[in-house]
Amino acid sequence: PAEVLTIAGLQEGDHIADISSFGQYFTAIMAEAVGPNGRIDMYDMPYMEEFGAMESGNGFAASHANSTYTVVDYNMIELGTDLDAVYIVLYYHDLGPLMIDTAAFNAKVLAALKPGGKYLIVDHKAEDGSGWRDAGTIHRIGKEAILEEVAAAGFELVTDSDLLANPGDDRTAMVFSPGTRGSTDQVVYVFQKPL
User: Fold this and answer.
1) Strand ranges in 26-93 using DSSP code E only, listed in sequence order
2) CB atoms within 10 A of CB 62
3) Structure pTM?
4) pLDDT confidence of residue 51
5) In the 8-state DSSP scheme, what is residue 100?
């Protein structure tokens, strides 16, 4: 995680929107790294409440003065302005199956970022060229689908890292299945809002 966040350009004092923060794995690291002058805005979808997201998110925000927590349908999300970064880790593939308008969502992300702001997307890779085909079943997405959609919103790709690549993953197994969970071949994209 530290290397991923370094690639993303995380800095002390940053204001970051953390999309699908449930579990606060990356959030805990980010909240410490941005320090008291930084800010982490966490967002979860309403259905996550059945997994305890609200209790977890509100608890985290209550114990971290630089963090806020919001439950909102991502079709209705308002991210504010002048953000340094927006991070979405292992969740972009869920947007389509949940009927989130990804074009509108990515446009909101672009509008919320300051010029030069970063948009980090980490996700489980599906087979090349498969697009959204496997998103609702095995929780994977063709990396080209992410690239095409985010570029169409006006972002520039600045990093396509193989940090979380795993050539041993054939990208056809359900990401939560035994032997696959925690070892998927993952894309790490960092996009930037044009200066």
Assistant:
1) 39-44, 67-71, 83-89
2) 10
3) 0.96
4) 87
5) -
